């Protein structure tokens, strides 16, 4: 058993065991960690609004835990009368867990809640084992999955922001002082001050690197805007099947697994609509309840495709018992990002894709289809079997075409570029060859047409 407590950590590691390269405790270990998950909840407390049961929360926490390379031993609910400010749990439960740690030779405990730095420190001191909370676990997953340079930088920035909040005067190695330079240098800085300075410097460097990456993404986005294709963003709760649906619609081979946060970096593909128009389909990171605030800030650039999307396809897991609760979580995160999908005016159009219909029984599927008949933006489908995907494509096309305008334009014979653009980007109603040029009558998206005219001037 790796009995690693805060006092055992190297003084050279800011945050007491968390590395400064953006990778956390779990990824720094060679052997698989023996992990146990606890979901503490206050007994009898009724949260406001839509909320999932403690059992569902524990199930989700276990799903988060197995999404990284660990040996998951198990998990349990911990009902509380009240939350203790110092240790979160009561002394009786702490004694039980301490025995459990010894008997099962546990290396790491995951608490599916938000622990303060003091609570985390006291739990580790009392239980003699490493403790992380829900935020740290999600950061571990993101650190393990990010594959692009931007994703890695954003994860590291979130890690460092989290580490900085954990630097409290709690470990002996952080209380040692380093000598000052010269006779008048004073006693020098303490280790905790040095660690804070190291993290602050690293955060500054990462932000500068991210600015450069963001400029590159902005350049790519401006190029896409010149090739004026509408953007359709797939959003949804993690593990709702977005990547499977994305692969089905685009014939791509994006990683799609039955695992939380299988996709962290955005993927873009151009697809053709029945009307002939092209759209850019974007697969985005999955959302989750109580997403750490530093991740919302860090991944804002990654989710810019959602912010600028012409249509949002909200992919929901129709087979999940908490599908309605997950829907509300997604709406909440989108609102935090500044995306309005519920307002009457200027709201981004949304289509609800009820995915995993293949996992429903006949009665449940019939109820879903009956509900879809009453709501045109409500589509049962399966990204795995392809059921309902053609209807989704048609709905996207109809939504984008709702504001199309009929335009008449005479184009000189010498203007081959405009003739080619009209043939490629519009639905031609009539084409009449006259002495001074070709008279076109066509249907086109007004936004696309305005961009073309502006570029053509």
List its traits:
single chain, 457 residues, alpha/beta, Rossmann fold, Alpha-Beta Plaits, four-stranded parallel sheet
Short description:
With 457 residues, the protein is α/β, with parallel strands linked by helices. The protein has helices spanning 54-65, 91-104, 117-127, 134-145, 149-166, 191-226, 242-250, 293-298, 304-307, 323-337, 362-374, 389-401, 416-425, 446-456, and strands at 34-42, 71-80, 108-111, 130-133, 231-236, 267-272, 278-283, 311-317, 350-355, 378-380, 405-411, 427-434, 437-444.
Largest sheet: 6 strands, mixed
Text of the CATH class of the largest domain: Alpha Beta
Strand arrangement, largest sheet? Answer: 6-7-5-8-9-10
- Structure class: alpha/beta
| Percentage of residues assigned to helices | 40-55%
Mean pLDDT: 78
Number of domains: 3
CATH overall fold name of the largest domain:
Rossmann fold
Q: H/E order of the elements?
A: EHEHEHEHHHEHEEHHEHEHEHEHEEH
What separation lies between the terminal Cα atoms? 72 Å
Strand content: 15-25%
User: So what's the oligomer here?
Assistant: single chain
Helix count?
A: 14
Please tally the β strands and state the result.
Answer: 13
Q: Name the CATH superfamily classification of the largest domain.
A: P-loop containing nucleotide triphosphate hydrolases
Which architecture of the largest domain would the CATH scheme give at its second level? 3-Layer(aba) Sandwich
What coarse outline follows from CA principal-axis ratios?
elongated
Uncertain ranges: 1-25, 169-188
What's the gyration radius in Å? 27 Å
């Amino acid at each position: 058993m790796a009995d690693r407590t805060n006092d055992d950590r190297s003084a050279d590691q800011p945050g007491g065991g968390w590395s400064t390269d953006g990778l956390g405790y779990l990824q720094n270990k060679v052997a698989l960690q023996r992990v146990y998950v606890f979901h503490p909840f206050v007994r009898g407390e009724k949260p406001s609004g839509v909320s999932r049961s403690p059992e569902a929360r524990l199930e989700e926490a276990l799903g988060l835990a197995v999404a990284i390379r660990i040996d998951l031993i198990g998990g349990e609910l911990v009902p509380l009368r009240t939350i203790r400010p110092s240790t979160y749990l009561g002394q009786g439960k702490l004694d039980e867990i301490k025995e459990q740690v010894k008997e099962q030779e546990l290396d790491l405990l995951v608490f599916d809640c938000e622990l303060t730095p003091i609570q985390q420190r006291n739990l580790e001191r009392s239980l003699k084992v490493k403790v992380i909370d829900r935020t740290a676990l999600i950061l571990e997953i993101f650190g393990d999955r990010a594959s692009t340079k931007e994703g890695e930088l954003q994860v590291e920035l979130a890690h460092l922001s989290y580490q900085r909040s954990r630097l409290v005067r709690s470990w002996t190695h952080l209380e040692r002082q380093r000598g000052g330079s010269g006779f008048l240098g004073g006693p020098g800085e303490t280790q905790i001050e040095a660690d804070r300075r190291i993290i602050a410097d690293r955060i500054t460097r990462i932000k500068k690197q991210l600015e450069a990456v963001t400029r590159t993404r902005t350049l790519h986005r401006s190029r896409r805007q010149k090739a004026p294709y509408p953007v359709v963003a797939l959003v949804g709760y993690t593990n709702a099947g977005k990547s499977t649906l994305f692969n089905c619609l685009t014939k791509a081979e994006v990683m799609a697994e039955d695992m939380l946060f299988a996709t962290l970096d955005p993927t873009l593909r151009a697809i053709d609509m029945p009307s002939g128009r092209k759209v850019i389909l974007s697969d985005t990171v999955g959302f989750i309840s109580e997403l750490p605030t530093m991740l919302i800030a860090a991944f804002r650039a990654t989710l810019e495709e959602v912010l600028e999307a012409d249509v949002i396809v909200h992919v929901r897991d129709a087979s999940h018992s908490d599908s309605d609760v997950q829907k509300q979580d997604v709406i909440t995160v989108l609102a935090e990002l500044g995306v309005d999908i519920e307002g009457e005016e200027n709201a981004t159009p949304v289509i609800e894709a009820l995915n995993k219909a293949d996992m429903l029984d006949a009665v449940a599927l019939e109820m879903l289809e009956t509900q879809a008949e009453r709501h045109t933006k409500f589509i049962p489908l399966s990204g795995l079997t392809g059921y309902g995907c053609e209807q989704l494509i048609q709905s996207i096309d109809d939504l984008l075409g709702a504001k199309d305008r009929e335009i008449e334009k005479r184009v000189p014979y010498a203007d081959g570029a405009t003739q080619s653009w009209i043939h490629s980007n519009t639905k031609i109603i009539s084409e009449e060859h006259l002495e001074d040029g070709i008279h076109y009558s066509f249907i086109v998206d007004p936004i696309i047409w305005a961009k073309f005219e502006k570029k053509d001037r």
